[in-house]
Specification:
By secondary structure, the chain is mostly helical. It is 63% helix and 3% strand. The radius of gyration is 14 Å and the shape is globular.
Length: 146
């Protein structure tokens, strides 16, 4: 049986859609999810990033550096489609949730999945900020134990 998603994950997906629109993109990518995890701010995912010195400014600057903004104006309504990386991240987040024996998929599982999605903007952003899977997992386990 697949675990359900937390209310924070629902908020992160909503924020990711908003970031995609802000970037005038017609899809939700890993970079939007990463920005949304940080902006949501109450989940373990955001707390681990903050503990490791990530600020909104640093994160946004690194994402902006890696993403080419679309210059076309688009009008998009409703939920945006996810990229293949985004779909892989969701599947990996479910795996991480199950491995950590959590009851629901949360922001920390999304963050771990983002750090594992090789070649994605989010993974490259995290790596550029010096954040990798093992370090993030260690921080998540420490915060989860509190």
């Amino acid at each position: 049986m697949l675990p359900k998603s937390s209310k924070r994950v629902a908020k992160v997906i909503q924020l990711a859609n908003e970031f995609a629109r802000e970037y005038e993109q017609e899809y939700v990518g890993t970079e939007h999810v990463l920005l949304a995890i940080f902006k949501e701010s109450t989940g373990i995912g955001a707390k681990v990033l903050a503990e490791r010195g990530v600020t909104a400014e640093k994160l946004r600057a690194e994402v902006d550096k890696l993403v080419r903004k679309s210059m076309e104006e688009t009008w998009v309504f409703g939920r945006l489609p996810g990229t293949p990386h985004f779909k892989n991240v969701v599947a990996t987040a479910i795996e991480q949730c199950q491995q950590l024996e959590a009851k629901e998929v949360s922001t920390e599982h999304l963050l771990l999945a983002l750090s594992k999605e090789r070649g994605s903007v989010a993974q490259r952003t995290l790596a550029a900020l010096g954040l990798h899977f093992d370090d993030l997992r260690e921080g998540i386990l420490a915060l989860s134990a509190k």
